[in-house]
Design a protein that fits this description.
Layout lengths: L3 H11 L4 H25 L8 H8 L5
Length: 64
């Protein structure tokens, strides 16, 4: 069962027009956060080595 008070607050804060859109937005945000957390954990797992900041600098196209 959904917490109706929490759903009402989410509807108000998220400025959505329907409960379905509010719940979908909440689920999308939840999935995004969990995936981001897993990426961060992977960075500390030893499976990937490198400097992301350096990689980003290397991928920039030089301006003419």
């Amino acid at each position: 069962m959904l917490d109706e008070d929490l759903l009402e607050e989410a509807l108000r804060l998220g400025e959505q027009r329907t409960y379905s859109k509010t719940v979908n937005l909440a689920l999308e945000e939840f999935v995004r956060r969990v995936r981001a957390r897993k990426i961060l954990l992977l960075g500390h797992s030893g499976l990937w080595h490198g400097d992301l900041g350096e990689m980003r600098r290397d991928s920039k196209v030089a301006k003419s």
